[in-house]
Amino acid sequence: MLVTHTQQELAEQIAEWRHHDEHIALVPTMGSLHAGHLSLVELAREHAERVIVSIFVNPTQFGEGEDFDNYPRSLERDKRRLKKTAADMIFAPDVDTLYPFGPDKATTVSVPGLTENFCGAARPGHFDGVTTVVARLFAIVQPDVAVFGQKDYQQQLVIRRMTEDLSLPISIITGETVRDDDGLALSSRNSYLSDEERAIAPTLYASLQSVGQKLQAGRREFVELEAAAIEQLNNAGFKVDYFAIRRALNLEVPDRDCDDLVVLVAAQLGPARLIDNIVVTI
Ligand code: PAF
Questions:
Q1: Cα separation of 71 and 280, whole Å?
Q2: Pair 114, 159 in one domain
Q3: Are residues 30 and 125 in the same domain?
Q4: Does the N-terminal or the C-terminal CB of the chain have fewer CB atoms within 10 Å?
């Protein structure tokens, strides 16, 4: 497995693969890789002969007072983990490579609408940072396929929209959320949890499942279901940011007949902001 920090080396390797008519999949990450990321790498490999994993803790998607400085960075460990997967190359650029004019002077890609609610409302500017860096990675790597995790449900919808809106010739694939045995979705931010908080954390997924079962059983009083879940989670020790039942396609408020729903939650638990979701197909 190759590791490069420069655009030049990346371009040379990609040119060689392209010369052999090989397809390229990109798995963008911020490192601190866990089994969820590794499953995205294996999924990527099903869609392309070559898999590039980018590792870059992107400053422009963190707001003031957020955890950019403390975000876990572990390139050596990430390399060891990726060596055991189908990854062909790690691209770990520095800030100047991705933002030649500096992050503050960067041309920004912004997706209106889809980014206004949920994580977009709670973290102003976050999705502009995500789409800006993903657009740059897409421009540099020019992959055939890019793979994102379902755990960041809103993010993958936003990236799909950006890709379609800009007519980028890239297929976006979404990989399933990988969970610990007790249901907690794997996340680099789980490392912020104390033992006590870690014991409470699976309640988040349990609340999603409980609402999912009620929806499957025909319940449609969305607002009441959301309110009850928020109360339950707040009582368990979370500070719920949002708990919402929405149309899976576009996060709009569903009507009673909608068959494709997503239940989304974000909540603070101690120092960690946790997000999770389930798709409920009736
Ligand atoms: O999901 C993430 O890890 C990041 O938001 C991404 C897509 C790598 C962009 O920095």
A1: 32
A2: yes
A3: yes
A4: C
